[in-house]
Amino acid sequence: MRFVEMWYIEGLDAGGKHMQTTFDICPMVRKYSAIPCEQLQVIRDIAAFQLSKIARGIVLIFAAWSGHSVIALQRLTESLSRRDLDFLEIKVIDIESMTSQDMNRVFGRVFHGYGETLWIREGKVVAQIEAFEPESEPLILAHTRELLAEHPV
After folding, report:
1. I need a surface site. Which of 14, 40, 56, 141 has the fewest CB within 10 A?
2. What is the mean pLDDT of each run of 10 residues along the chain (153 residues)?
């Protein structure tokens, strides 16, 4: 992967004023996820995200600048890669796409870049992990089992 592939530039006028650069988390998500990218949805614009539309899903708040967040993505997707994910939506939201006000409006709280992960049922947060520790895997599996157990097979 070349460095230039990881960045894109928006809003650059001829004089170079009002330049806004945004880091694209997709290459990092692809690199560190144990789940194929086709099974994940990366959200780079919080305006395009609707919590209320998620029937059963897992949302990871990803901060590209945070080692905690990268570890959370790795551990979550490694745990999930051994499960049938047909009935789950898995979303990775770029923390940089949200202001504190956006976080409070959408989730009722502020995130800090630790790879905070939320389990969602019918648009409501039913479980969460604040930061991933080595002993987090049983929690990941238990929260995921609870979501899948309620889905009629």
Report:
1. 14
2. 38 42 84 92 94 96 95 94 86 96 96 96 95 87 87 49
